[in-house]
Amino acid sequence: MSLAHAIFAAGCFWSVQAAFDSVPGVFSTRVGYIGGTTANPSYEQVSSGKTGHAEAVEVTYDPKLVSYEQLLNIFFKIHNPTTLNRQGPDIGTQYRSAIFYLNEKQKSAAVDKITELKRQKAFSTPIVTEVVPAKTFYPAEDYHQDYLKKRGKTNCRT
């Protein structure tokens, strides 16, 4: 089995992780931080909004069972990609909408998806999702991994 990786930020990483965990073909997920300037940041540092990192989810998947394009479709369905630095009650750059691409094929697919959504007028306001190269992904602390699953929940709001 040849696995691939994708990294998405769409607000509270617990809900994002839960959404991708339910996708057939997703082998594993882990929550963490990416896109900032602080090495090995803690949750407290990231939640302060001063590190530049986003709460994100690294998705490990089997591309024979689920495509990157299908993951993009899920990404755009599970959050509001038109709110800048905010998802629901969570406000700050750490909750921004972003696709951290790992190669040019992912970058192209992400840009094409956003172009398609704009053409379709899928949202009434402009998409603000960043499409940026992935740098170092720092896994979050153990207590954040599978946080909702450990508590028998499926999202942050229940």
As a percent range, the share of strand residues is 15-25%
Termini Cα gap: 36 Å
- Provide the spatial order of strands within the biggest beta sheet: 7-6-1-3-2-8
Low-confidence region ranges: none
CATH class: Alpha Beta
- Overall body shape: globular
Q: How are helices and strands ordered from N to C?
A: EHEHEHEEEHEEH
Write the layout of secondary structure elements.
Layout: E1 4-10, H1 13-21, E2 26-34, H2 43-47, E3 54-61, H3 68-77, E4 86-87, E5 90-91, E6 97-101, H4 104-120, E7 130-133, E8 138-139, H5 147-150
Parallel strand pairs: 6-7
Antiparallel strand pairs: 1-3, 1-6, 2-3, 2-8, 4-5
Helix pairs in contact: 3-4
Structure description:
β6 (97-101), α4 (104-120) and β7 (130-133) form a beta-alpha-beta unit. α3 (68-77) packs across α4. The longest helix is centred in the C-terminal third of the chain and has 17 residues, at 104-120. The chain has 158 residues and is of the alpha+beta class. It has 5 helices and 8 strands; from the N terminus they run βαβαβαβββαββα. The protein starts with a strand and ends in an 8-residue tail after the last helix. It has helices spanning 13-21, 43-47, 68-77, 104-120, 147-150, and strands at 4-10, 26-34, 54-61, 86-87, 90-91, 97-101, 130-133, 138-139.
In short:
Helix content is about 30%, strand content about 25%. It has about 160 residues and is α+β, with helices and mostly antiparallel strands.
Jot down its keywords.
158 residues; 28% helix; alpha+beta; six-stranded mixed sheet; Peptide Methionine Sulfoxide Reductase, Chain A; globular; 8 strands
